[in-house]
Structure formats: structure tokens, C-alpha cells
């Protein structure tokens, strides 16, 4: 399961993307979201696969998506990933797993500890 939330840093995003058109900005955002929800926070290095999930035709892919991929993503080992997004995913995933584990434990450890203390001190 992917982390269900996505950290967004508007000032950083604007600093890096202020030169993009509205269409390119939308494509970049969609690529980031798609990457976030794909296992490993990366996409297969397959333009047809990416175009299909981006819901664009070949002309739009070449005109809008391909330049965004070239500028903001790296292709390595058969995967396409955005370095910043990968770092943020790792941090968020670690936090999410810790919180999930803590939630699964609930109040049990403390309750068990309190019950054992109670039993030891009970004189009846």
C-alpha cells in the first residue's frame, strides 16, 4: 500500500516550476501523483505505459509530458523517478509505518502493565 497522503511544499514547487505553462504544470502534478501511488514511488520506463496512465495521446505526450519527464525525472534501471519525491516518500513511509504500528498496539502495553501492577498489589 502506498502512503495515503502527499506532502506538498508550495514555495519549493513554485521556485522550481514557475517557467511551466498551465498544461505542463498539470502534467507534472499528475506525474508526481502517479509516481506516489505506484509501488516504489517510481514509474516503469515505458512511454506507452506512462501515456496511458496520464490519459494523453501521442502528440500531447511528446509535446507536454516528455519534456517534463526529461526535466524533472531520471530514468535508471528501467524506472522513472523524481529524486525529491522519492526522498519525501521514504520519510512519509517511515512515519506512516511507525504511526500504523503504534495504532495497532493501541493502549495495550500500558493497560497490560497497569493490570499486572494491580494484580501484584491486590491483597484479596
Fold and architecture overview:
The chain has 124 residues and is mainly α. The protein has six helices and three strands; from the N terminus they run ααβααββαα. It has helices at 10-17, 22-37, 47-54, 58-72, 83-105, 108-121; strands at residues 43-44, 74-76, 79-81. The chain has a three-stranded antiparallel sheet. Strand 2 (74-76) and strand 3 (79-81) form a beta hairpin. Helix 2 packs across helix 4. The radius of gyration is 22 Å and the shape is globular.
Low-confidence stretches: none
Class computed from helices, strands and strand pairing? mainly alpha
Tell me the Rg in angstroms: 22 Å
User: Total helix count?
Assistant: 6
Proportion of residues in extended strands: 5-15%
Question: Largest sheet at a glance?
Answer: 3 strands, antiparallel
Strand order of the largest sheet: 1-3-2
The number of strands is 3
Distance between the termini: 50 Å
Helix and strand succession?
HHEHHEEHH
> Average pLDDT, to the nearest integer?
86
Helix content: 55-70%
Shape: globular
